[in-house]
Design a protein that fits this description.
Chain lengths: ~300, ~325, ~325
């Protein structure tokens, strides 16, 4: 009986918080624009499955128009034109949206998971553990992620997309963990944690039942910023020629324009991928800023640029 | 006095961090799949030359000895020869370092100053048209994909309009001309630097503008601003003398936090504009499997990041008396 | 008469509507005298201070009344004229004075700035000399002049702020909760020194506080505020020895005093009314122990007990009579 009421109260609490949050979010013009743009990109990602089914010539990676062997401008057959070997740019662009979401969301998810776990452990356990983990975070934080991935790919050869995602995640957790740690530290002082400890709750239980629900909203805020940086790093890597050769990403499309010397000749090829990368970054960023206002305006700033 | 102690403490921290990076890099180079010897020895060398290099690098010794050799070689500046250039790596990176520092520091200082200045203006006009346009502009330039922006800059300003050279850092006809003075040479470098600098500036100033704007709005709510108003100071003095120095502190912090991000951008910019700096050398050496050059450029970039972090921290301590004492 | 405030009304535009923070407040202040404004938080006492300085936040506005200072209406002055009055004629010591000093500037520079702004003809050296004198006056060692605010203790910061308030020898100082953040002993010292300085320089002071015991020590006149209104006003002895308004009585019994005999401390039950739509009658009646049916329906009238003592309560004289009967 008592448990049931507690659950209801909890649910009310969450529903209330989400509704209240949506109320604030709704007022943010930037947030709404960001959300609409993101929905458009998601639609693009979904549509990427269509062209290869229509005709194998529209496959973003292997499809080549048999009649075309050089880059051509937009036409009825190829709405955005073709690349240097006659592949359809539109279907590449759509496939790029899929890759961007995949890379962005999975890398962000992993780095947030790592950052939250490490932050909570550092904050909760304290002492040497805290010092060690935070020094490690400081160290990783000063490393330029893109160049680290470059060095690794020179040593380990071509990296596939999941390895890239993993490395990005491994290098992007410190910002999150710092914030989560300080949040955990302040939570640790609160009476309800003290009460739980006195009542004999185990450390794991305190972390999972009492601390985690309170830091998760912050983690998710950081997730949007991490998505941005993961997409940028992957795109830059592909642009420099170190992307996964088995996938078509926007960065790779730009690399092809650049390396095949089409950048002055083929604006129909140069503009779309760049605009897409910039816009998806912008929309995640705007979403993040709007969520920022919903959560806590005072907890931002850390690493806005990263 | 206190400031000096602070700097020394930070230097020690930096030394430790660098030592860890050095060690991790050593392990990566030895533990990565493939033959470590082939990574340090130029495939074009004669067996005799290779043998000399192997014993110099200690590659025939056990792993822990190799590590000591590695440390010794690092401190003596022996990184081997670049496979591609055939020259000692040290010579190459010593040649590239000033170019990187020139572009990197100019772009950061310029974007921080302009960002702070414009952010201040935006906060004065909070809610107005100026503010709205500045915020939109800052958001847009801050999130644009850097290599793409670089390509667009080249396309528009160098290719279409022909105002600036497309790539490089110097033009031979100026530098090989014995009559060209230092002024002509500097102007030539500036002419080449304009586009890469503009690219880096556009990418960076937006985030500083946004931080300065929100920080300024927060600061204007502080009690000491009320005191300043009650003192009968003019709005201009309050903003510039009382609010701005406090509001700029988070900008300095964020310059420090985004240094790694800026170095990434620097390497991309150098690569697209073929600016002869370390970042471009790293990208180049990685794509040409020039391991000695890659290793050394990476270490040097790590040093650049760490030292600029120190500079930012010292600047912060200088600006905020609460840190100093 | 240095300051005459007549029917001053101030409001704030808020999301819930127009909040009438101060309504029809009148009081006067003579040269060299001090007035204490007492009330719980949110009663509008700080708003009065801000309105006198012309420092209301952007959503705040004076909706009526006159503030005559040395014969000129402060409310009619331009921002430029006000800037000339601020600190030179009226200085202010703020609530939460701990943050009232700018952390990135040295303390002496901040004080010299006030002097130099209002006396541009003075040289920098002269200003520094004046700052030195001020430090001596408030009892901070000269060696600490070049320090930054964070190097000061709470009491020293407060002294520095008092020194700053005295910098231009103002006619009036508005002290808003000047000692709230300090511990009791330092509080006492600062109050004593303030009292001495006031006598020395013949300055008028308005003390704003939630703590009636602080005001009791230093003020000649006392005004009690409740929910945006002045509810009782009079000379100190009158208000303390013969409180008329029920709120004043409740306030006096809710604070412990050292000087008087032990009394039961009584908390005042209930909350202050909403000021967006204030009730038509007496604002205290919901919490008042003596309220009757008439209290709720119409606004209370001022009752003059003596020429210098008045209260905003229709029933206060009835009670007076009762008390006389009892004694």
């Amino acid at each position: 009986m008592e448990l049931a009421t507690k659950k209801i109260v909890l649910r009310y609490h969450w529903v209330f918080r989400i509704r209240e949050g949506w109320g604030i979010f709704h007022q943010s013009l930037l947030g709404k624009i960001g959300l609409v743009l993101l929905l458009l990109f998601a639609l693009m990602a979904l549509c990427s499955y269509i062209p290869p089914r229509l005709d194998p010539m529209y496959d973003p990676m292997t499809g080549v128009d048999p009649k075309i062997s050089h880059s051509t401008g937009p036409s009825m057959r190829h709405w955005l034109g073709t690349d240097f070997m006659g592949r359809d740019i539109l279907s590449q662009l759509l496939a790029g949206a899929r890759i961007a979401f995949m890379v962005g969301v999975s890398a962000a998810f992993m780095s947030i998971f790592l950052g939250t776990a490490i932050g909570m452990i550092a904050g909760y356990v304290g002492r040497i553990m805290d010092t060690l983990l935070m020094r490690l975070a400081d160290m990783i934080m000063v490393m330029p992620t893109l160049l680290v991935v470059l060095i690794l790919s020179s040593l380990f050869g071509q990296l596939n997309i999941w390895t890239i995602v993993l490395i990005i995640a491994l290098f992007r957790w410190p910002g999150v963990s710092r914030v989560i740690r300080s949040q955990t530290l302040s939570l640790k002082q609160r009476p309800f944690i003290e009460a739980a400890r006195v009542a004999g709750a185990s450390h794991l239980r305190i972390i999972f039942r009492h601390i985690m629900p309170n830091v998760l909203p912050l983690s998710f805020l950081y997730m949007t910023f991490r998505v941005t940086s993961a997409i940028i790093i992957e795109a830059a890597l592909a642009f420099l020629g170190f992307g996964d050769p088995g996938t078509v990403s926007w960065g790779m499309m730009l690399q092809w324009v650049w390396k095949t010397g089409h950048m002055f000749k083929a604006p129909y090829w140069l503009l779309p991928p760049g605009i897409c990368i910039s816009l998806i970054t912008l929309s995640f960023y705007m979403l993040g800023r709007a969520m920022d206002e919903v959560l806590d305006p005072r907890l931002r700033r850390e690493q806005e640029a990263g | 006095m206190e400031l000096r102690r602070y700097i020394i403490r930070r230097l020690v921290q930096i030394a430790i961090i660098f030592f860890v990076i050095l060690t991790v890099l050593f392990m990566l180079f030895r533990l990565a799949p493939g033959d470590p010897v082939s990574r340090m020895v130029d495939p074009d060398m004669t067996p005799e030359e290779a043998q000399i290099l192997i014993s110099e690098l200690g590659l025939d010794q056990p792993l822990w000895m190799q590590y000591l050799y590695y440390l010794r070689n690092f401190f003596m500046g022996r990184f081997g020869n670049s496979f591609h250039y055939g020259q000692p790596v040290v010579t190459i990176i010593a040649n590239r370092l000033p170019n990187t520092i020139l572009l990197f520091t100019t772009s950061i200082i310029l974007s921080a100053f302009v960002g702070v200045f414009l952010g201040k203006i935006a906060s004065w006009h909070k809610g107005g048209k100026v503010d709205a346009w500045m915020t939109i502009g800052a958001l847009a330039t801050h999130t644009v994909f850097l290599p793409w922006l670089a390509l667009i800059m080249i396309w528009v300003f160098a290719y279409k309009l022909g105002w600036f050279p497309i790539t490089g850092m110097i033009s031979e006809e100026v530098w090989l001309n014995p009559e060209a003075g230092i002024v002509a040479k500097s102007l030539d470098v500036l002419h080449h630097m304009a586009l890469p600098l503009a690219t880096l500036f556009l990418i960076h100033f937006g985030s500083y503008l946004l931080i300065m704007r929100s920080s300024m709005l927060e600061t204007l709510k502080e009690d000491y601003i009320l005191t300043a108003r009650a003192k009968g100071l003019s709005e201009k003095v309050i903003r510039n003398h009382h609010a701005a120095p406090n509001a700029a502190l988070p900008v300095v912090t964020s310059v420090g936090l985004s240094l790694a991000f800026s170095i990434n951008g620097g390497a991309l910019t150098e690569t697209v504009f073929t600016w002869p700096g370390i970042g471009r050398e790293l990208v180049f050496s990685v794509s040409h499997n020039d391991y000695p050059l890659a290793q050394a450029s990476f270490l040097l970039i790590a040093i650049v990041v760490l030292v600029s972090n120190l500079v930012v921290d010292v600047l912060y301590a200088y600006l905020d008396p609460r840190i100093r004492y | 008469m240095l300051l005459e405030v007549e029917n001053l009304s101030v409001g704030y535009q808020t999301k819930k509507g127009f909040l009438k923070a101060v309504e029809e407040v009148s009081f006067t202040l003579e040269k060299g005298k001090s007035l204490g404004l007492v009330g719980e938080s949110g009663c509008g006492k700080t708003t009065i201070g801000m309105a006198l300085m012309g420092l209301l936040p952007p959503n705040g506005a004076v909706t009526g009344g006159r503030v005559m200072f040395e014969g000129h209406d402060l409310l009619k002055m331009s921002e430029r004229e006000l800037r000339g009055i601020r600190w030179r004629k009226i200085a202010m010591i703020f609530q939460a004075a701990m943050n009232a000093l700018n952390p990135v500037h040295r303390v002496d520079d901040q004080i010299a700035e006030a002097i130099l702004t209002h006396n541009p003809q003075i040289s920098k050296e002269e200003a520094v000399k004046q700052v030195e004198e001020l430090f001596e006056l408030v009892g901070i060692p000269k060696t600490r002049m070049r320090d930054y605010p964070h190097q000061y203790s709470g009491g020293m910061k407060q002294r520095a702020i008092i020194a700053m308030a005295l910098a231009c020898r103002p006619k009036l100082i508005i002290a808003d909760e000047p000692t709230t953040a300090l511990d009791v002993i330092v509080q006492h010292q600062i109050l004593q020194e303030t009292k001495n300085l006031q006598k020395e320089f013949n300055i008028s002071i308005i003390f704003i506080s939630h703590d009636i015991s602080i005001v009791a020590d230093v003020c000649h006149h006392i005004g009690i505020m409740y929910a945006g209104q002045l509810v009782e006003y009079g000379r100190r002895e009158e208000v303390f020895n013969n409180p008329m308004h029920y709120y004043t009585k409740a306030l006096l019994s809710s604070y412990p005093t050292l000087s008087r005999e032990k009394k039961q401390l009584l908390p005042i039950p209930g909350d202050a009314p909403n000021l967006v739509e204030p009730p038509p009658g007496c604002r205290f009646c919901d919490r008042c122990s003596a309220s009757g049916a008439t209290c709720k329906t119409g606004p209370p009238e001022w009752v003059e007990i003596t020429p210098t003592h008045r209260a905003l309560c229709d029933r206060c004289l009835e009670d007076c009579g009762e008390r006389k009967h009892k004694s």
